[in-house]
Amino acid sequence: MRIAVLDDDPILLELIKGTLERHHHVCHTYASGTSLLKDVRHETFDLLIVDWHLPDMEGTEVVQTVRQIGGPQLPILFITRRQDERDVVHALACGADDFMTKPLRMGELVARTTALMRRAFPEAMGMRLVFGPYCFDADKRSLAVHGQTVELKNREYELALFMFRNPGRLLSRAHLREVVWGDTNEAPSRSLDTHVSRLRTKLELTDANGYTITAIYGMGYRLDPVGPGTTAPGRTPAEATH
Question: Can you tell me the distance from the alpha carbon of 191 to that of 199, in angstroms, rounded to the nearest whole number?
C-alpha cells in the first residue's frame, strides 16, 4: 500500500519508512505540511500518518485540509507527544481515524496502519477475487472473463488486479506505476497508458460487463463499477473517458 508520513523529525521519518517498507508498503516522507498538501492535491495515498507539531502549521490543519480535498475515505493516523484526553478528542474531531502517542512502538504502528487500511479498503486488503464476470486466480496469476482465460502479461495482470481491488477509487499515475513497476523512474508515462488501453480491450471493460475505466486528466485512472444497482462516480468536465 502507498503511505505518506508527515513529521519534522528526520530520524523518526526514516524509522517509520524503514518499518513500513519491510512490511511491503511504499512510503513517502514529508517534513512540512505544505509539501504534503501540495502532493495530496494531485497524488493518491492509501494512508496518511501525521504529526501534530510541524514547522509551518499544526497537524490538525493538515488533517482538516486533507478531508476537504479528498473526503472521508482516506485513513489518517495522528501521532504526537500529547497524551491528554482532550487532545485525543480534538484530533479525532478534526478528522483523524486513530491516534498514537510518542515514543512510537513500531509493532503497534504496523498493527494500527494495517487495521485502518483493512477497514478503509476491504477489497484491496482481503482475498475477494471475483468481481462480476471477472475471476482472478492468485495461485496461477490468471484472469478469466465469463469463464474464458485471458492471456495477460505480468504487468497487465498486476495492474488489472490492483484496479479491481480498488473499484470506484481514483488512483494517481504515480501510484499505479509504483504498484506495477515498483520504481517510477523505470516506468515512462506512456507505458502506463498503453497497459491501460490493452486492459480495456482484452478484458472488454464496457457497461455490458459491469466495469469501465475512466481517465481523469492530470491525475490518473479509475475503474468504475457500472450497470443495474450500481451508481458510478459522477464525472466532471476535467474527466475524459477513453
Answer: 12
